[in-house]
Amino acid sequence: MNLGIQGKWALVCGASKGLGFGCAQALVREGVHVLIVARGAEALQASAKKLMTDDVRPESASVQFVAADITTVEGRAAVFARRQDFDIVVTNAGGPPPGDFRDWDRDAWIKAVDANMLTPIELIKATVDGMAARGFGRIVNITSSAVKAPIDILGLSNGARSGLTGFVAGVARSKLAAQGVTINNLLPGAFDTDRLRGTMAGAAKKIGQTLDVVMDARRKNIPAQRFGSPEEFGSICAFLCSLQAGYMTGQNVLADGGAYPGTY
User: What is the 3 state secondary structure string of the chain?
Assistant: First the structure.
């Protein structure tokens, strides 16, 4: 399927690895020019090189990168100094650490909200008016399946990402929808990433089991009987950025192998 976005410009955050890289890869393969952002310069440069040497990438698609912390004012300024206008924005920031809510002070909450709620809002604010003026825009926020099925040890993430979800529910249904701009949230379940392994390692240590045992138990609780791959996650993201997805906005798209047990 031709997604109709060849030649568009995309900003993809947290794109040096994992789900962010999967999204960048899928967009590049559709002929999209991509500016990828992450904090680690060395890993980011390696990822940019990998994207540029991808055999599936059309020669017309270019890749740029900015090593910056997108959750800071300075980081966002560095990105927009490189390029001001984007047709596609994929917001993504590492989730806050797991733990017991009794141990989190105000600073921990502010840091979580800043990274996982306020940063996406700032990126939306900085780009949607230009998108509306051009008559096309796609914003995809990578959040978490925990928005629909909260996980007790991920309280910081549950709270911050739920706040973003509520905000998007309103702004996506504003006049932007009639101006060709869609805003959706993409909710990953268990994908084979460093983030998942880190969380599972913490759980394994807590219960005195090996990582392999805990990972296998988690896998068996997924109806698909496997973890997702960043590449297939990226393909879902690319579809949400397509012309064909122009009638979808304000949605929470769950990609979890069937793990969420609810009807709605």
Answer: CCCCCCCCEEEEECCCCHHHHHHHHHHHHCCCEEEEEECCHHHHHHHHHHHHCCCCCCCCCCEEEEECCCCCHHHHHHHHHHCCCCCEEEECCCCCCCCCHHHCCHHHHHHHHHHHHHHHHHHHHHHHHHHHHHCCEEEEEECCHHHCCCCHHHHHHHHHHHHHHHHHHHHCCCHHHHHCEEEEEEEECCECCHHHHHHHHHHHHHHCCCHHHHHHHHHHCCCCCCCECHHHHHHHHHHHCCHHHCCCCCCEEEECCCCCCCCC
pTM above 0.70, yes or no: yes
Residue 145, both tokens: 């399946």
Edge-to-edge strand ranges of the sheet holding 63-67: 63-67, 33-38, 9-13, 88-91, 137-142, 181-188, 252-255
Whether residue 178 contacts residue 245, with contact meaning beta carbons closer than 8 Å, is answered with no
How far is the C-alpha of 24 from the C-alpha of 32, rounded, in Å? 9
Instruction: State the chain's maximal CA–CA distance in angstroms.
Output: 56
- Can you give the pLDDT of all 264 residues of the chain as single tens digits? 899 999 999 999 999 999 999 999 999 999 999 999 999 999 999 999 999 999 999 999 999 999 999 999 999 999 999 999 999 999 999 888 888 899 999 999 999 999 999 999 999 999 999 999 999 999 999 999 999 998 888 899 999 999 999 999 999 999 999 999 999 999 999 999 988 888 888 888 888 999 899 999 999 999 999 999 999 999 999 999 999 999 999 999 999 999 999 998
